Amino acid sequence: MLNVTINKQTIQVPEGTMILQAANKVGVTIPTLCHLENREPIGACRVCLVEVEGARTLVASCSTPVTEGMVVHTNSTLARNARRQVLELLLSEHDGNCQTCDRSGDCELRALAEEMGVTFLPYEGVKAKKKVDESTPALVRDNGKCVKCRRCVTVCNEIQGVGALFPQGRGFQTVIGPAFTRELDGVACVQCGQCAAICPVGAIVEKSCIPEVWKALENPGLHVIVQTAPAIRAALGECFGYEPGTRVTGKMAAALRRLGFDAVFDTNFAADLTIMEEGTELLTRLKKALVDKEEVALPMFTSCSPGWISFAEFYFPQFLPNISTCKSPQQMFGAVAKSYYASKIGKKPEDLVVVSVMPCTAKKFEAQRPEMNSSGMQDVDYVLTTRELAKMVKEAGIDFKSLPDEDMDAPLGLSSGAADIFANTGGVMEAALRTAYEIVTGKALPVDNLHVKAVAGLDGVKEAALTIKGAKKEWSFLEGVELKVAVAHGLGNARRVLEHIKANGPVYHFVEIMTCPGGCVGGGGQPRFTDDSVRLKRISAIYSEDEGKKIRKSHENPDIQTLYAEYLGKPLGAKSHHLLHTHYKAKEL
User: Model-level pTM?
Assistant: First the structure.
């Protein structure tokens, strides 16, 4: 332990602690634009400069380790003036357009300028060359607004392991973007939106479809319905001043009705449907492998995260046969809505508009995939992020906090607690195990409170093993089988799992992969800024939502049972195969 004095407060910190971290321990916040937790500091922005007694110059607090007896001044005149000057230089070349910028209300650069008392710019400065990239369905890049903090580079390369963004050039000529100044659709970008989630300014944002949704809502000839993903209910409140992890399910449903949607449904319903199809698919693959001795692609991977699907198509096409053929819950919902639901209400599919509210920017890309049209047309028409929904609510003048709690509509609004936990890393795995184990044994999953703690939490890769005991006669071949599963969140962790399987063979039976850190609660379309403390609060809220449900297993959802009885027939049947399943193929640029 080392002794350090920060603004006359002496504390002890472990060796290797950076000044920035030490300052946080005494309640001192040092501003920064480039720093990301749990990542090696790069000291790129220089906004975190502090004064250290005995040092020749000011130092970057994010990348300077504490030494024994160090005395630090974070708010001296010298430090404050230097940070203000760095900020003024950044602002001088920043083509911000604050009056109309998408990030005007939550721009970190603008907030820092206010905190540091920047009231005018003493430097005129040449502006960076503006180039707007709108080549993908999910994201928009504007180089003119980029402050070259390199957060997007860190998250894309170190956390996601995708490598779509790099710094190119030197000094003022530095450009952050795809190699050879290509547009995003010309490189292996999975459109996960983690870059947009951590960008401090408006240089990378989601591509908005708010105007198209307003237009649909105002068309009396259209029946416009909306589905909300599990993660939204634990994050949307942050856009209206609630603490992270506050559940706003009822107010969200009320707000959507007041926006004019003809029906408010829940993607959770389709998550339950996914478990029915995916669980049956897993058991079918196991039967073929263990009884029929067929060559089967194992382990089976989950398929509900579109960024992960793109990642596999680009980087690991050899594992495409291992991915479940199930569509994501979003796409299952769209297919069912434009067939089963349209028929029930006497509407033509072409007169039905399906809007999704998702925590994920990659869902915008997924909705436009050519495979997603089993209803005879595009199954999901528009995808809004959590942030976009909040903007619409504010634009409509709705006082969110004063809204009453309302329920989702029938028949696509009832869901189990198992569907809620799809929002969390490990949640899809737990939901699948709840149903699959009970189908095989007739008994509840043997864990406390139904939770599989081994696959919960924020460890990057998690493993669990479950020995099947008391299998029914038709599943006797699984008696005594140790079902081995793994969970990975963040594509960098997914790569670790895939490389492990490549090197060691099918060491698992079932693997859940989520694109974003923490799962959907940490999606690229969620309220900013998302760090682990926020992720954990949202995860806790989702588990509470699950635990408060009367129905906590997907196969016990009565509306799912009715859907099969009236329309689909059975899991993996001919109709469900047509509507709810798909295939993927390798991508080449």
Answer: 0.94
